[in-house]
Structure formats: C-alpha cells, structure tokens
Design goal:
By secondary structure, the chain is α/β, with parallel strands linked by helices. It contains 15 helices and 13 strands.
C-alpha cells in the first residue's frame, strides 16, 4: 500500500487542492468545505484484482488500496468490517419481498458501523502524529473513536448532547475517554461548537463522523458497499436503505459503488434511499425540495426523536449525499418514532437482529417505501442495520413493554401467559 493511490484532496467548497503529504484535515480557508479524497484508479486496478481480493481475510482492510492510509504500519484495527449480509426470509415474507437482505453492522467491535470510520480516522491520526483527538457525537461515533484511540494510545475528548443515553456514555468511560455532556439550548449543535474550540484553538485532531471536519473517516463506510457486492456474488442490489443523519454514511456508501465503477469491477448503481426521523429530517426535506446541494437548510429546532444517532440538525455531508441520491435516482423517506420501534421489534422477533432505534430506521423506511409503492417485490433490497440495541438501553426499556411477575405456581404461569402473550395451551 502506498501514498501513490491518493492523488490529492480537494475542498468541496473553494476547490483548494492538497497533497496527502501535507497532512491536511480541514480546509485552511475555514469555509466548511470537505476535503474530498481522490484516487489513482488506474494504479489501483493495476495493483489488485477481484481474484487477489478473494484471497484476503474478509474484513475492512482487505480493501486497503481504496483507503487513504499510506502504509500498513499506521493501520489501527480491531477487526472491523466483514459483517454478515443476512437473507431475511421471515421478514421478507412478512413484507412481501423475495430478496430482502440485512447488512448487520451491529457485529462490529463496538457495536456500530462507526468502527469502519474510526479505524480509518485514527489510522490517519497516527500517521499525522496526533496525541489528542476530539469528537462531537450522540454516542456511537464517540464510543468508536474512544476504542480506537485506546488501541492507538491517543487521548480522546468527547462532547455528547445532554440527552445522550448512558449506555453509550458508559462505553466511552470504560474506553478511557474524557466525556462532557453539553446542554442543548438552541438549534445549532453545541457539541460541534465545543469540538471546534479544541480543534481550532488548541490543535486537537477533530474526528467526528462527518466529513467537513475529518475527510478520512468518511472513507471507511464505503467498504460496506464493497462487501455487499462481494456477498451478492458481484451483483448489484436494486435498492439500499440507509439511516441518515449528517449524510456521511450515505456519502460513504455511494463512494464505495463509485470506486468499483471507476476500476471497472461493477457497472451502475443501486438506488440509494435516505431515511430520517419525523422529528429531524433536514436532509430528506432538501431532497423533497430538489434543493441545490450547496444550499441545504438546517433543521430549525432541537431534534425530537428516539433515533438519537440521527439527530444532526444540519447534514454536514448533505451536499455529497444529495448528489448521491440524484445520481442513483434515489429518494428520501421520513418515518415516525413508533414506526422505528415497530421496525426494532420486527428485526428482533423475525430475524434475531437486535438494533437500536437509529439502527432500525432503515427498515422503518423500507416498510414506508413499500406502502408508497416505491419497491417491487422481485427487487433485491438491502437494509443497513447500523447499531446494536444494547447501545440505547434506556429507550429499549421504555419501548420493550413490561413482563409479568408470578409466584412459582403452574396456574399463575398459564394465566400470565394468556394475559401477556396470548399463549394458548
């Protein structure tokens, strides 16, 4: 693996070009432009083939040529990626779909897809020589950064919203992160405000899960698309449902398909579908309005949803995300919290996959899209399940329902089974 595969980085706002050797993280013009990474696809195609790929271990770094880390000595890994693509037979039958698949990202080391992002980000921090990193996050990205920071010996400072679930905060504390809950008193994300203070004034490495402040982490999730294509036998799915907050995951998923089109391994794209909660959908609103990708309006009030991982009031990578929807003839779906809870229960009870609200939002979006006749029963559909249910124990406790308390008596068991579960014997 060599720096030669990355040709340059380019600011998405002002167009300023950087070389990787300059070790850029954000644009010097402070215009909130993302430093998009550009690769020499001809060199990549000459260096690795599909046949060579098949011989490698099935985890994220099998795609090392498509990632920006310049040398294997800098890779910080916990074995992320290589997650299963599950054929959802029972769920598919319930929904009337013949070829429904779940990309189960809950299997990653810290329980969410963010591990792909933070493995790349922390690897780049190691290459750059940073000793301290800072993040603004509702929980999952921070937990992931803390884990990889611990592995690399990089000190992590995390700003989380005051309503972040303690399950995620506990994970952060065990990884050794220094965690600060920030009061959310206005529409502007206060965690981002604090992250910028430490990165811009004090030189901390910014590593949130959106590309404006860290262009490298967005490269990790594109390996999800690459795995899906391999797991489908080098076939493209027809539609991919993506839970969407800052639109970074959506952008990364698109980039994976783009990269393999560029090296000639696939032709075309699936329709990408962005799913957001009713209490915060600035990105899907922009798609509905056919907005200019560079003129997306932020959500005007604090977010209100149980899907805490999708609470970005401004989609930081919305410009690239919107272009991805336009390019793939994709679309956006808005779902209610009770629809997300129902999706959580369906995933767990029919397929044995326990997802947090943000992780189940993609399925809620699929169900809504089926109702709106956006999905054909014969299509191959992939739903990204992005985070484990144990990430949000507070919400799980509120939504799972109560269980009966009985004495160790046969008659009480039968009575409770009938009352609570409708069981007949």
């Amino acid at each position: 693996m060599s720096v030669m595969f990355v040709t340059h980085l380019k600011c998405s706002k002002c167009g300023r070009v950087y070389k990787l050797e300059e070790k850029p993280v954000t644009c010097v013009n402070k215009d909130l432009g993302r430093l998009d990474v550009y690769y020499d696809y001809e060199a990549i195609a000459s260096s690795v083939s599909r046949e060579e790929l098949a011989k490698r271990p099935f985890y994220m770094w099998r795609y090392k040529e498509f990632l920006p880390v310049p040398s294997e000595e800098y890779i910080v890994t916990l074995g992320e990626g290589g997650t299963p693509l599950l054929k959802a037979k029972r769920l598919g039958e319930r929904l009337g779909l013949k070829n429904l698949y779940l990309k189960d990202e809950t299997r990653n080391p810290t329980g969410s897809f963010k591990d792909r992002a933070m493995s790349v980000s922390v690897s780049m921090a190691k290459y750059f020589g940073f000793k301290r990193a800072v993040i603004a996050s509702s929980g999952n990205a921070a937990a992931s950064l803390a884990a990889y920071g611990a592995k690399a010996g990089i000190e992590v400072y995390a700003f989380v919203p005051d309503f972040a679930g303690f399950g995620k905060i506990a994970q952060l504390l065990y990884y050794g992160a220094k965690v600060f809950k920030v009061k959310w008193t206005e529409a502007e994300d206060p965690t981002v405000k604090m992250m910028r203070v430490l990165s811009e004034r004090y030189g901390f490495y910014p590593s949130p899960s959106f590309g404006v402040f860290n262009p490298y982490q967005i490269e990790g999730p594109k390996t999800i698309s690459m795995e899906i294509v391999e797991q489908l036998g080098w076939r493209l799915p027809d539609q991919v449902f993506v839970p969407t907050g800052a639109a970074s995951l959506l952008t990364g998923v698109f980039n994976g398909f783009r990269d393999w089109n560029q090296v000639g391994w696939i032709t075309g794209y699936p329709r990408l579908v962005a799913v957001q909660p009713e209490g915060n959908y600035p990105f899907v609103r922009a798609w509905m309005e056919r907005a200019d990708p560079n003129k997306i309006r932020p959500w005007e009030k604090p977010p209100e949803t149980i899907a805490t991982g999708l609470e970005d009031t401004f989609p930081w990578d919305g410009d690239a995300g919107l272009r991805a929807l336009y390019k793939t003839n994709g679309y956006g779906v808005v779902v209610k919290d009770d629809e997300i809870v129902e999706a959580m229960k369906l995933l767990a009870s029919l397929e044995g996959v326990f997802a947090e609200p943000s992780g189940a939002a993609g399925l809620a979006g699929l169900i809504k899209a089926i109702e709106d006749r956006q999905v054909d029963k014969d299509e191959t559909v992939v739903v990204l399940v992005t985070g484990h249910g144990l990430k949000d124990p507070d919400i799980v406790k509120k939504t799972a329902g109560d269980v009966p308390l009985i004495n160790p008596a046969e008659e009480e068991f039968f009575a409770a089974a009938r009352k609570y579960y409708g069981s007949e014997f």
